[in-house]
Amino acid sequence: MKKLVLSALMTVISASAFAKSIPAGTYTIDTAHSKVGFEIPHLVIATVEGRFTGFDGAIVIDPKLEKSKANLNVDVATINTDNKDRDDHLKSPDFFDVAKNPKMTFVTKKVIGTADKLKLVGDLTLKGKTKEVTLDVKYLGDVNDPFGNHKVAFSASGLINRKDFGLTWSKAVEAGPVVGDEVTLIIKIEANKPVEKKG
């Protein structure tokens, strides 16, 4: 019995020793190697995928992970669903109304969990409305790139209801199952900070 308990204890200690940790520091999002996208149900049986090509942001990793922060700023006019007519309609006053509401922002309020399993709770502001949302985040690792940067990578996802942000279509569309209410946010981030020189 003692051997069994000792074996279990050693397993826990070993797992803790090799648990992931995120290097502390202030990182700038590498927009060339990141993606801010979404999926929305279409006609119940399929989905429409899209992305925003214009965005920026920063991540501050604190040694105490729960004190870390992140922000993301998205240029809504850069929406791309691979259909120009649909994109133009999405930008119009009928939906995003980008002339009046050019930005979508996310700012963290709380970080929960460990590097292996994170949740970011924050305020998402879109079309003049702010709602609290939760993103499930996976830390993918870190590496020094050939250009003098230390790079970290994350993937994140979360659900929002488009109607919470006043994103509605015509009465005819809303009356049927053409477009779903729940939107899945899909975010993939690489972020950089300069490599610290030793000596």
From TrEMBL:
Q: Which residues form the Lipid/polyisoprenoid-binding YceI-like domain?
A: 26-192
- Would I find Signal among this entry's keywords? yes
**Superkingdom:** Bacteria
| Entry annotated with the keyword Glycoprotein | no
Q: Which InterPro entries match?
A: Lipid/polyisoprenoid-bd_YceI, TTHA0802/YceI-like_sf
Instruction: Extract the signal peptide range.
Output: 1-19
Alphabetized, the UniProt keywords read: Signal
Q: Which PANTHER family match?
A: PROTEIN YCEI
Its recorded name reads Lipid/polyisoprenoid-binding YceI-like domain-containing protein
